[in-house]
Design goal:
Layout (H helix, E strand, L loop, with lengths): L4 E5 L3 H12 L3 E6 L10 E5 H9 L3 H5 L3 E3 L1 E6 L4 E6 L11 E5 H14 L3 E4 L3 E6 L4 E5 L4 E4 L1 E4 L6 H6 L6 E13 L7 E5 L5 E6 L4 E8 L11 H7 L6 H8 L6 E10 L5 E2 L2 E3 L5 E2 L7 H16 L5 H31 L8 H12 L4
Parallel strand pairs: 1-2, 1-12, 2-8, 5-14, 12-19
Antiparallel strand pairs: 3-7, 4-7, 5-6, 9-10, 10-11, 13-16, 13-17, 14-15, 15-16, 17-20, 18-19
Helix pairs in contact: 1-4, 1-8, 2-8, 8-9, 9-10
């Protein structure tokens, strides 16, 4: 194999899937995560079939599916509530996996953490990289826990605000999309059993997806103008939802001070050149991050991770293998980022001639049915 010992920086979806995929191939893996408590964010996530296909590659798809609610359509509503269209979603992971899954990020992460434990992977929480030295045939990493060790490969999977990216000297930085998103988790009604999106209200759009028999996660896309002091104030959130009705009348009334909610401005990133420098490589959101309008962020991260595990454990020159990995991935992730940004632009400027959000979404998901 090209590598036998790997350090993974970051314990989110990308880093966790990479750790599992490499360990299953016999690699000695050390995974470090800067947080002391290791779990995903508490809000929901829409997982398309191609992400589930990547999870199936490491044997955890069934457990992840069991955490949430599979569905195969998106219902499009006017902001006032009337149904405009009921649109099937393609099975981007193939005929034997759900088209889409709604679940909690924390539940998905818990499945990955469990599998990492089953494999006996060395995990260090509250730990970061202090220094990297690439000697050509190995990388020496000095960690914040005071240890220093040599690795065949270091994988920077530390997210859109990656310190690894900065340490490698990449000058690409996250850029604002012009939108923010406020997500929340609450009780749903029985008929709210698939994804739904509401257009024509006071903001760009609002929507929801089921995550259990009784709960859903919901969101509203807004201008990125929420003050820091208001980001935990659910009365501000309910005010933002005043112009949405139908199912949102129930959702709005269900919000109280105990409702979990999360606001953040939406950023994006694309490194459109090779992601590796010597024996250190960036993957997932550290190399490419897209606005959530096509719901492909987690899928791109999981695909990166399983494919990197494959390439890194082949026989051959590691530098060449990392280059082949990048060439395999760049067209697909570039398309997702660019199409997501086009969707944002059409949301921000809806009167543009030629805007076709539904068509672009359909074409993007059709591309995802092809092998990653």
């Amino acid at each position: 194999m090209a590598v036998n010992k790997v350090l993974i920086v970051g314990g989110g979806v990308t880093g966790s899937v990479a750790a599992i995929g490499l360990a299953q191939r016999g690699v000695d893996v050390c995974l470090i995560e800067q947080r002391d408590v290791w779990m995903g964010a508490g809000h929901g996530i829409t997982v398309h079939g191609n992400a589930l296909r990547a999870f199936a590659e490491i044997g955890v798809a069934d457990r992840i599916i069991a955490t949430g609610v599979p569905f195969d359509r998106i219902r499009v509503h006017q902001a006032g509530g009337p149904l405009l269209a009921d649109v099937p979603t393609p099975q981007t992971g193939g005929p034997f996996l759900p088209a889409t899954l709604g679940t909690l990020r924390s539940d998905l992460q818990n499945v990955l953490v469990e599998e990492i434990g089953n494999l006996g992977i060395d995990v260090r929480l509250g730990c970061t990289v202090k220094e990297l030295h690439d000697a050509g045939d190995r990388v020496t990493a000095a960690l914040s826990d005071g240890t220093t060790a040599e690795y065949d490969l270091v994988v920077g999977a530390d997210g859109i605000h990656s310190d690894t990216r900065r340490m490698l000297g990449f000058d690409e930085r996250p850029a604002p999309s012009g939108m923010g998103i406020w997500r929340f988790v609450t009780e749903r009604l029985e008929h709210m059993d698939s994804s739904a999106v509401f257009y024509g209200g006071p903001w760009y759009k609002a929507g929801y997806a089921p995550i259990s028999d009784t709960q859903c996660y919901a969101y509203v896309l807004i201008d990125p103008v929420i003050k820091d002091a208001d980001r935990r104030d659910n009365t501000v959130l309910t005010g933002l939802l005043d112009g949405y009705h139908g199912d949102f009348d129930h959702l709005r009334k269900s919000i109280d001070e105990s409702t979990f909610s999360n606001y953040q401005p939406i950023e994006w990133l694309l490194i459109d050149r090779p992601w590796s420098r010597g024996r250190v490589i960036l993957v997932g959101d550290a190399a490419h991050a897209c606005p959530p309008l096509i719901a492909q962020g987690a899928a791109m991260c999981a695909e990166d991770a399983v494919i990197l595990a494959d390439f890194a454990t082949r026989e051959g020159d590691l530098d060449q293998l990392l280059g082949e990995f990048w060439r395999r991935r760049i067209h697909r992730v570039r398309t997702v980022v660019e199409n997501s940004l086009q969707m944002v632009d059409w949301e921000l400027h809806p009167d543009q001639p030629g805007s076709d959000a539904a068509g672009l979404m359909a074409r993007s998901l059709a591309l995802m049915t092809e092998p990653a």
